[in-house]
Structure to design on (615 residues):
């Protein structure tokens, strides 16, 4: 028993020692090894992006990629704990983007925390007349204004305009900048800016827009003129001497022109929207008359399709507004309620602000620089003493209002001041009404519930006019109320003469203006020479026309519903011609001459009808 115990004890001791040794070895093997850092992809969100944005990731190495859409993520992973930064390598065209949350020590919390925000550059107008070719710069944009006086800016920026080294004061960049914006209590600066711009106009006729040539800009390089100086007129004289000995436009003439331009800018239609299906269209027909058309029936006594016609007096400098009511069908709608109104001032800018006794409203212009059809067009029906204004609100919607509608459905009484809202389709020629939401004028507008518009056509003319061919009633010619761009050309588009910004004359031609009279009209040729048309208007719509020293040709003529003179004649080679003399604002009898022929001529010139003695 003792031996057995001893043996057992002898065996147990080394076994215990062995077990202890084994336990020590296991402890070493269980020690934790260092873990590899997580591999993460870096990205983020994007808002407002309309194009392609270049982004660069720096995190040890560099990754660059072009992105679109609303999010981004770089392809290669980066180890957690690595320092990183994302930067913008290229901006999208017409936009400026910024980025936040785009740097730090990488973790799962910030791997996709970057936020890119993009803002689109907006188009503003520099107006004396529209000023083309003047340099500008904002915090993010720079260049020269285009042919229509437009510049690019981002909301909240300031803009500086300059002619060579002649710099104008910085002003807030908005949708409309005029010399008056530079005032800041300083009438001298306002006057000097208006005077120099009108003086430097390339064709010396600011009524068709102001264009600054490259040579004009270069003439001001190296100058140290102060546009705000009371001595500016004397100081700039030496520069003007190098530019065909020009003389600075007078202060009075410059101010009068700016006021005229602002009044022209007001013309046309403005939209005040109270909600879906609740649009109000305010149209300034000319310098003294307005129309309001309502789309909806309100909680008072205003009905859908009702309207208001009135007169107005407006001071562009102070904004003072005075209204007179001529007629209304909208009862308490519009400006007037019970024969009185509370409108006090009207401020023209990027939008139109009308201040009332206790509140104000803001209206947006109905216009689209990319679609010349958008805007307001008028037609006068003398037999009914009725003015109709057609407003193309978009590429698919229109509104229409009459001052003296004489038509109705069935036995109902016509509503004189009335209109309609509807949808249309137009492919550049064929025109049709595809839907109607308001129809208060019976069959008097574009829509007639008892008749189809199939077969109707609409032609957009380059002289600020549309020709609407009604399959049943014939052709109507409608001039545009708003300012429009015209690309002048000699014979065809391969011989351009430049773009001008024009306004149709508020009064078209009448027979009394031309009957039994003869006129000459000079026009510019592509090679720099000048041609001259002579036109003699005889009785019964007949007359003669000739160019330069060429033999005279028999012609027929009439005045269309837009107030333009249409002339038809055939030359000795049997080529037929159609000439349209479209009246435009500016000099007396200023016109656009459109000449098309059976030999594919398509000329457009600017001219002036000068009375001359009959041959």
């Amino acid at each position: 028993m003792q031996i057995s115990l001893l043996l057992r004890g002898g065996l147990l001791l080394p076994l215990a020692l062995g077990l202890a040794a084994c336990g020590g070895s296991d402890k070493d093997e269980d020690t934790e090894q260092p873990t590899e850092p997580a591999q993460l992809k870096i990205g983020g969100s994007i808002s407002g992006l309309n194009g392609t944005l270049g982004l660069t990731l720096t995190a040890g190495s560099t990754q660059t990629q072009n992105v679109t859409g609303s999010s981004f993520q770089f392809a290669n992973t980066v180890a957690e704990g690595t320092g990183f930064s994302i930067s913008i390598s290229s901006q999208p065209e017409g936009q400026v983007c910024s980025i936040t949350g785009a740097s730090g020590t990488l973790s799962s919390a910030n791997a996709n925390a970057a936020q890119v925000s993009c803002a689109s550059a907006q188009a503003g107008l520099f107006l004396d007349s529209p000023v083309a070719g003047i340099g500008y710069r904002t915090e993010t944009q720079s260049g020269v204004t285009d042919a229509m006086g437009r510049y690019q800016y981002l909301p909240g920026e300031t803009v500086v305009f300059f002619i060579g080294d002649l710099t104008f004061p910085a002003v807030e960049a908005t949708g409309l900048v005029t010399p008056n914006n530079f005032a800041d209590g300083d009438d001298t600066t306002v006057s000097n800016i208006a005077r120099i711009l009108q003086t430097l106009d390339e064709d010396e006729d600011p009524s068709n827009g102001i264009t600054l040539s490259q040579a004009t800009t270069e003439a001001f390089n190296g100058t140290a003129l102060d546009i705000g100086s009371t001595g500016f007129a004397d100081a700039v004289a030496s520069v003007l001497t190098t530019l065909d000995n020009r003389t600075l436009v007078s202060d009075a003439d410059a101010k009068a022109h700016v006021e005229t331009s602002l009044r022209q800018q007001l013309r046309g239609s403005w939209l005040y929207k109270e909600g879906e299906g609740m649009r109000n269209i305010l149209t300034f027909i000319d310098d003294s008359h307005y129309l309001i058309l309502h789309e909806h029936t309100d909680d008072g006594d205003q009905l859908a399709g009702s309207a208001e016609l009135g007169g107005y007096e407006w001071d562009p400098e102070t904004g003072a507004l005075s209204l007179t009511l001529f007629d209304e069908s909208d009862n308490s709608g519009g400006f007037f309620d019970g024969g009185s109104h509370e409108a006090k001032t009207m401020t023209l800018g990027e939008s139109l602000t009308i201040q009332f006794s206790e509140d104000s409203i803001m209206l947006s212009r109905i216009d689209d620089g990319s679609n010349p059809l958008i805007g307001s067009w008028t037609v006068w029906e003398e037999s009914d003493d009725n003015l109709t204004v057609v407003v193309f609100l978009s590429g698919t919607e229109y509104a229409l209002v009459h001052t003296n509608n004489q038509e109705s459905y069935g036995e109902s009484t016509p509503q004189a001041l009335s209109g309609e809202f509807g949808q249309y389709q137009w492919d550049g020629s064929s025109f049709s009404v595809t839907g109607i939401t308001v129809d208060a004028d019976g069959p008097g507008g574009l829509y007639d519930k008892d008749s189809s518009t199939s077969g109707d056509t609409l032609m957009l003319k380059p002289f600020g006019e549309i020709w609407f061919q009604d399959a049943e009633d014939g052709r109507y010619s409608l001039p545009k109320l708003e300012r429009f761009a015209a690309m002048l050309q000699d014979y065809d588009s391969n011989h351009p003469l430049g773009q001008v910004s024009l306004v149709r004359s508020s009064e078209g031609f009448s027979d009394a203006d031309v009957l039994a009279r003869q006129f000459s009209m000079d026009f510019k040729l592509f090679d720099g020479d000048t041609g001259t048309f002579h036109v003699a208007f005889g009785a019964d719509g007949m007359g003669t026309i000739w160019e330069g020293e060429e033999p005279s040709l028999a012609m027929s003529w009439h005045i269309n519903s837009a107030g333009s003179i249409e002339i038809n004649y055939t030359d000795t080679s049997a080529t037929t011609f159609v000439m349209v003399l479209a009246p435009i604002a500016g000099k007396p009898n200023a016109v656009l001459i459109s000449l098309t022929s059976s030999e594919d001529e398509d000329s457009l010139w600017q001219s002036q009808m000068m009375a001359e003695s009959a041959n």
Helices lie at 2-29, 187-200, 214-219, 232-241, 251-266, 511-514. Residues 1-31 form one domain.
